[in-house]
C-alpha cells in the first residue's frame, strides 16, 4: 500500500485532530519556555531559584546538601527514562501482535478500519514516548555535567574562577531542567494521543484538556503564586 493510499484511509477530522495535537504540544512548550507577555511560567521562575542555589552554594560548607539535591534530580530523570522505555516496549509489542491490536480496536470502536490505521495511531504515541525518552536521558546526562561543574567551584569565594564556575553550573542545571520538562510534556501528549484510538473528536478533546491543564499548572497554579510572591514573575530571565 502506497503512502497516498494509506492517507486516504483517514478522514479529514483525523488530520485536524492530529494537527491540533502537534500544534498544541509545540505552542504550549513555547509559551512555557517564553511566557505570556510579562507573565512567566513556573518553569521560568525556577530558573531564578537555581541561580540563587548556585550562588549560596559558594559559601556552604560542606556541600553535601547540594550533592543530595542534585542526586535526587538525577534519580527523577532516571526513573522517568526507565518508565518511558517500558512504555515504548509495550507499544512495540503491540505493533508486533497485530491480532491483539485488532481485538483492542474492535473493543474500542465499531469502525472496521484496516490494521494499518491502528498501527499508525500507535506509532504517533510511540513518537511522543521516544521524544520523551531522549529528553530524559539527555537531562540525566546534563545533571551529571552539572555535578562535575559544581565540584569545580572553588571553596574560596574570592577566587577568580568562583563566579564563572557558579554561573556555568547554574546554566547547565537550567538546561537539564528544560530538557526534563520537555520530556514530561511529551508524556502528557503521548497520553493524549491514546484518545485517537477512540476517534478524532476524542483526540481533539484530549489535546485541549492537556493544553488547558498545562496552562493552569504553569501560569495559574498555587505553586506559581508561591514562587512569584517576591516579584520573580517580573524578571526577564527565561528558561
Summarize the structure in short.
By secondary structure, this protein is mainly alpha-helical.
Question: Any descriptors?
Answer:
239 residues, mainly alpha
Which helices and strands occur, and which strands form pairs?
Elements: H1 3-7, H2 12-34, H3 42-57, H4 64-96, H5 98-108, H6 115-151, H7 162-193, H8 200-219, H9 222-227
Helix pairs in contact: 2-7, 2-8, 3-7, 4-6, 6-7, 7-8
Number of helices: 9
Strand content: under 5%
* Strands, total number: 0
Report how far apart the termini are: 45 Å
- What is the typical, i.e. mean, pLDDT? 88
Largest sheet: none
Helical content (DSSP H or I, runs of 4+): over 70%
Low-confidence segments: 231-239
Molecular shape: elongated
By helix and strand content, what is the structural category? mainly alpha
What is the count of structural domains? 1
Kindly provide the radius of gyration, computed on alpha-carbon positions and rounded to a whole number of angstroms. Answer: 22 Å
What order do the SSEs take from the amino end to the carboxyl end, as H and E?
Answer: HHHHHHHHH
Descriptive overview:
This protein is mainly alpha-helical. It has one domain (13-234). 77% of the residues lie in helices and 0% in strands. The longest helix is centred in the middle third of the chain and has 37 residues, at 115-151. 31% of the residues are buried.
Amino acid at each position: 500500500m502506497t503512502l497516498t493510499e494509506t492517507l486516504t484511509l483517514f478522514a479529514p477530522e483525523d488530520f485536524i485532530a492530529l494537527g491540533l495535537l502537534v500544534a498544541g504540544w509545540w505552542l504550549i512548550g513555547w509559551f512555557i519556555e517564553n511566557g505570556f507577555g510579562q507573565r512567566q511560567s513556573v518553569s521560568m521562575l525556577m530558573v531564578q531559584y537555581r541561580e540563587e542555589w548556585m550562588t549560596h552554594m559558594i559559601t556552604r560548607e560542606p556541600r553535601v546538601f547540594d550533592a543530595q539535591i542534585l542526586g535526587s534530580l538525577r534519580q527523577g530523570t532516571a526513573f522517568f527514562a526507565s518508565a518511558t522505555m517500558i512504555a515504548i516496549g509495550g507499544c512495540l509489542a503491540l505493533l508486533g501482535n497485530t491480532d491483539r491490536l485488532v481485538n483492542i480496536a474492535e473493543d474500542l470502536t465499531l469502525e472496521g478500519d484496516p490494521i494499518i490505521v491502528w498501527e499508525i495511531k500507535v506509532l504517533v504515541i510511540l513518537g511522543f514516548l521516544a521524544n520523551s525518552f531522549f529528553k530524559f536521558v539527555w537531562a540525566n546526562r546534563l545533571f551529571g555535567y552539572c555535578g562535575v561543574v559544581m565540584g569545580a567551584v572553588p571553596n574560596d569565594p574570592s577566587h577568580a574562577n568562583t563566579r564563572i564556575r557558579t554561573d556555568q553550573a547554574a546554566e547547565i542545571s537550567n538546561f537539564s531542567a528544560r530538557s526534563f520538562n520537555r520530556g514530561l510534556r511529551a508524556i502528557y501528549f503521548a497520553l493524549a494521543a491514546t484518545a485517537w484510538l477512540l476517534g478524532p473528536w476524542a483526540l481533539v478533546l484530549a489535546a485541549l484538556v492537556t493544553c488547558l491543564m498545562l496552562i493552569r499548572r504553569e501560569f495559574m497554579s498555587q505553586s506559581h503564586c508561591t514562587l512569584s510572591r517576591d516579584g520573580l514573575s517580573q524578571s526577564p530571565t527565561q528558561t
